[in-house]
Specification:
The chain has 248 residues and is mainly alpha-helical. The chain has six helices and two strands, in the order ββαααααα. It has a two-stranded antiparallel ribbon with strand order 1-2. Strand 1 (2-6) and strand 2 (12-16) form a beta hairpin. Helix 3 packs parallel to helix 5 (119-158). The longest helix has 75 residues, at 162-236. The termini are far apart.
Length: 248
C-alpha cells in the first residue's frame, strides 16, 4: 500500500507505508532506524543483524506460547471420566464410565508418540484414567453389595423383623454416604492434579524457551567476538613501507 504526494518539483512521490519490503522481510521500526543512524557504517550491519535476531526470537517465543494456549487439554479426559464414574448409579453406568476411560487411555497413548513435547502431561492424564478404571471395579462391587443389602432389608420388613431392618437400613445409608464422600474426594484430586500438571507443562515450556534463547545469545556473542577480533587484527596490521627508488 502506498501514499502519493506532490513534491516541490511538481511530480508525484511514492511513500511506502508497508511494514514489509518486497522480499517479505520486516523493515526496521522508527526506533531501530534512529539507533542505526548513530552507529558507524562498518558496525551498522552487525547491529542490524542482532536486532533482527532478537525480533525473530521474540516472534518465535510468542508463537510457542500461542501453541501452548491452543494445544489439546489432555487432563480434561481424566476429569470427565471421574465425573462419569461419580454420577454412575448402576453397574451398567459404571461399565460405561470405565469403557470411556479405557478408550481415552488408548487415544492418549497414541497421542504420546505424536506429541513428545507433552509426553509428561499425557502420561499424568493416563495415570489418572487408570485410577478411574481401578475405582470402577471397586464401585461395581459396592453397588452389588448395596443392592443385596436393600433386598435383604425389604425381606426383613416383610417378615415384620423391623428392628433388624432398621439396623440394616442405617448401615446401608452409612456405607452409601462414605462412598459418595470418597468419590467426591476422587474428583477433587483429579482436578487438583490437572491444574498442577498444567502449571508444570507451562513451566517446562518456559524453561525450554529460555534455554533456546540463551543458546542463541551465546552463539551470537561468540560470532560478535570473532568479528571484533578480526576487525582489531586488521586495524593493527602495519601497511607496507613505500619503495624508494634510487637512481644514480
Amino acid at each position: 500500500m502506498g501514499i502519493s504526494a506532490v513534491g516541490a518539483n511538481g511530480y508525484y512521490q511514492e511513500q511506502t507505508v508497508s511494514s514489509q519490503n518486497a522480499s517479505g522481510q520486516t523493515a526496521p521500526t522508527r526506533g531501530e532506524q534512529d539507533v542505526l543512524a548513530g552507529v558507524p557504517e562498518e558496525d551498522r550491519k552487525t547491529l542490524s543483524e542482532m536486532i533482527k535476531e532478537a525480533r525473530e526470537q521474540t516472534e518465535q517465543r510468542e508463537k510457542m506460547l500461542q501453541q501452548t494456549k491452543t494445544h489439546r487439554r489432555y487432563g480434561d479426559a481424566a476429569i470427565l471420566a471421574c465425573s462419569k464414574l461419580a454420577r454412575a448409579r448402576s453397574t451398567g453406568e459404571v461399565d460405561a464410565a470405565s469403557g470411556y476411560a479405557r478408550r481415552q487411555i488408548a487415544q492418549l497413548r497414541a497421542a504420546k508418540g505424536s506429541d513428545p513435547d507433552n509426553a509428561d502431561r499425557i502420561q499424568a492424564a493416563i495415570n489418572q484414567l487408570q485410577k478411574t478404571v481401578n475405582r470402577a471395579g471397586r464401585k461395581k462391587r459396592e453397588l452389588s453389595q448395596e443392592k443385596a443389602s436393600a433386598v435383604r432389608q425389604a425381606r426383613l420388613e416383610k417378615e415384620k423383623r423391623l428392628r433388624e431392618a432398621k439396623r440394616l437400613r442405617h448401615e446401608l445409608r452409612r456405607r452409601q454416604t462414605q462412598r459418595l464422600l470418597r468419590e467426591s474426594g476422587y474428583l477433587r484430586e483429579t482436578e487438583i492434579d490437572n491444574r498442577q500438571q498444567d502449571h508444570l507443562a507451562a513451566s517446562r515450556l518456559e524453561l525450554r524457551t529460555q534455554m533456546q534463547e540463551l543458546s542463541s545469545a551465546a552463539q551470537t556473542s561468540v560470532e560478535s567476538a570473532i568479528q571484533g577480533y578480526a576487525a582489531s587484527t586488521a586495524a593493527e596490521t602495519p601497511s607496507p613501507a613505500p619503495e624508494i627508488s634510487v637512481q644514480a
